[in-house]
């Protein structure tokens, strides 16, 4: 497929702790086109977070490759990976992506400052779209769970990424907030972003174009 924005080929990742070896990814591939939402599901320990970390360039696969918008991300120096990540990727992990000592507005501005770009979305507009325009001046600890999830998504989308990678983005939010987040994901995909979302939620899987299942580091 030539129109895929995210291409992963034959990804392998194993971990060794003493005599114990875990094969977290066993040679899996993934292609995601612009505008497509792919949900990745699977039982605990099946390799979902490891896959997302390798796709984000936050972890290095032991074998295989990851390309984002035609640029190789895997097996590059940390600096290069950081540059590609800032320009092309929005990443939302469960640990969150907000710096505690900065307001929501400044968290967005910080991420935008990493990339030189002529036109960019104003933080206030981005937050308005998430329905939390009134929380721009708040610190992360002053946000509710649902507000944090939306602020995290705003930061992940701050540089209009080609690819959005999200690990359980609706993990701790109520039904209404989940619906809002999903509408935002769909809106972003309609604007051309390729989305990979790890989830246990049926509601999230229901808005995906494809649902893929991992078990023991392989697609099933
Ligand atoms: N840094 C690490 N060192 C050793 N083993 C690891 C490491 N990271 C992950 N693993 C192992 O790799 C396997 C896959 O883990 P991973 O976190 O990717 O699973 P997951 O599908 O995201 O699970 P969950 O749904 O519980 O978050 C597991 O057996 C896990 O114990």
From TrEMBL:
Coiled coil: none annotated. Pfam families: ABC_tran (PF00005). InterPro entries: AAA+_ATPase, ABC_transporter-like_ATP-bd, ABC_transporter-like_CS, ABC_transpr_LolD-like, P-loop_NTPase. Residues 6-220 form the ABC transporter domain. Gene3D superfamilies: P-loop containing nucleotide triphosphate hydrolases (3.40.50.300). GO terms for cellular component: plasma membrane. SUPFAM superfamilies: P-loop containing nucleoside triphosphate hydrolases. GO terms for molecular function: ATP binding; ATP hydrolysis activity; transmembrane transporter activity. Transmembrane segments: none annotated. Keywords: ATP-binding, Nucleotide-binding. PANTHER family: IMPORT ATP-BINDING PROTEIN (PTHR24220), LIPOPROTEIN-RELEASING SYSTEM ATP-BINDING PROTEIN LOLD (PTHR24220:SF689). Belongs to the ABC transporter superfamily. This is ATP-binding cassette domain-containing protein. It comes from Streptomyces beijiangensis.
